[in-house]
Amino acid sequence: KGTLYVVATPIGNLADLSPRARDVLAAVALIAAEDTRHSAHLLRHLGVETPLISLHEHNEAQRIASLTARLEAGEDVALISDAGTPLISDPGFLLVRALRERGLRVVPVPGACALVAALSASGVATDRFLFAGFLPARGGPRRSAIEALAERQETLVFYESPHRIRETLADLGAVLGERHLVLARELTKTFETFLDGTPAELLATLEADPNQARGEFVLVVEGAPAVDRDPERERGRELLGAMLAEG
Ligand code: SAM
């Protein structure tokens, strides 16, 4: 039986594709890609001539049967997305789950991933983090989503597009206040930039220099401060509260 290779591709700098990734893309019978035109460009650059088929959010469910049949017949297949690691805010989850349920082999070929790249160079705590992908596009649901995360003490990581970066910073400010965050822009590309500050400060920077609002973004937000769990102090607060209530 064949193997599905989940292959990471670059998030900007083409030199980030590993030699192993290139070998796998050249050796498989077929590459399933989010956007075949976009990936044809990468494959040309790599000198790889493997045939491509599309696998995107609108046809993923339909593709599962034909890809399963080819893997069952012994062919190896690679899955790639437009940038970075497939399945990370990208298609592929339905396929990988279906193949694992059938006992077929799925092998990762790791490489670039914007969230890990941003986090690793952000200077924000990395021991525990919560990746929340893209926030909802509409204002109400977006603010509710931020509110639901406001008390989390682990670092929060979001993806954002240039269309909504200002609104998202404004909503982060409205809900989280003066929370420190890092805006990682255009990672591995010519205009890679890390900006840090409060949401209001970053918003002001983007307003002052619209070039800073262009490109692709990862937002790395410091977690909520730890709640004071010292029992002595907590009891002190309770006593004070009771005295004030009686007051
Ligand atoms: N699968 C990809 C990965 O492994 O990171 C993410 C795909 S998701 C559809 C695209 C989002 O990832 C962008 O909107 C942006 O938030 C983030 N992203 C991708 N490339 C980036 C880069 N070079 N710099 C900053 N953010 C990037």
Automatic annotation (TrEMBL):
Main location: cytoplasm
GO molecular function: methyltransferase activity
Tetrapyrrole methylase domain residues: 3-202
GO terms for biological process, alphabetical: methylation
EC number: 2.1.1.198
Keyword check for Transferase: yes
Function: Catalyzes the 2'-O-methylation of the ribose of cytidine 1402 (C1402) in 16S rRNA.
Name this protein carries in UniProt: Ribosomal RNA small subunit methyltransferase I
Species for this entry: Modicisalibacter tunisiensis
Gene: rsmI
